[in-house]
Amino acid sequence: MVELAGAAAPKPVRWGILSTARIARQRIVPALQKSPSALVTAVASRSSESARAFAEPFGIAKAYGSYDELFDDPEIDVIYNALPNHLHRETTLAALARGKHVLVEKPIGMNRDEAQEIKDAAGPLIVAEAFMIRHHPQWHAVAEIIRNGSIGPVRAVQTFFSFLNVDPANIRNRPETGGGAMLDIGCYAVASARFIFGAEPKRVLALIDRDPEMTTDRTDTIVADFGDGRQFSATLSTQSFRHQRVSIIGTLGRIEMPTPFSAPTDVESAFGLDLRGPGEPLETISLPPVDQYQLQVEAFSRAVAGTGPWPFGIDDAIANMAVLDALTRSESSGRWETP
């Protein structure tokens, strides 16, 4: 694991897993079990059978058949909330009411108002949105290149993020659960653009195509004006060939990120730096393999233990949701909208 700010917790922070979702099984629990500052104590599902089936392969001691049992467990410090989007607000508020810190899978809620309600209920507890990409060294390296002026002031960011999922039963394709491209992957595109520019957009515009049967947004093209000539554009799709990239164009050069969101954990990550122009090969910047999910849960555990910082708090989640809300409004109005 790469070096993180702060120090490992003096004793492991105890985590409870809310939901038996695939991301919890494939990413978060394995990451937590590699983290020196974390201990997976329990998992909860809507049925005891589902919880036990999830817990057994990982050796998790407690398997609860209701969410309230998890929230009421005095031996849990943090809840990881991997439930569908439409349940984030209700269950995060319930966990906070029981004195638990919460790491909520993105997006933090269905809209800005839900994110604000979560903030109002948090008090001294730490609650945050789980954007693992912010902990990957490739994004830190990109930020340093921008900071040191190698590519000059950034004028444009262009993003593409897509996958193919046409299963109507999948929660990503159900509008009542918060499915669709904007909330599922648009949140990454917006969060990364805000990170690159270090600013909030002044206005946004969206062109959205909806599936005629499922009614979820399946292909979105979005534009954001960050002021001073700084522009962001992205195409997002849940019904296209799997692809992702981020291009960052400055006055003196550009950065090309081929795996900005799903960086591999078992091989090197790499991005390209172009300071010479068309026809010339890009300089390849390579970084050792890391698990960005492990870096995320270790950083959160350190913050809960008071031994490390957590730089992206609930206010950042509120700002990101405000942009997504404005993009949704733009679909209806056909005009630029202000977050």
TrEMBL record:
Oxidoreductase in keyword set: yes
GFO/IDH/MocA-like oxidoreductase domain boundaries: 140-256
**SUPFAM superfamilies assigned to the protein according to its UniProt record, in alphabetical order:** Glyceraldehyde-3-phosphate dehydrogenase-like, C-terminal domain (SSF55347), NAD(P)-binding Rossmann-fold domains (SSF51735)
Keywords tagged on the record: Oxidoreductase
Q: One MF term from GO for this chain?
A: nucleotide binding
**Gfo/Idh/MocA-like oxidoreductase N-terminal domain location, by residue?**
14-122
The family classification in the record reads: Belongs to the Gfo/Idh/MocA family.
From the Swiss-Prot or TrEMBL record, give the protein name.
Answer: Predicted dehydrogenase
Q: Which organism is it from?
A: Kaistia soli DSM 19436
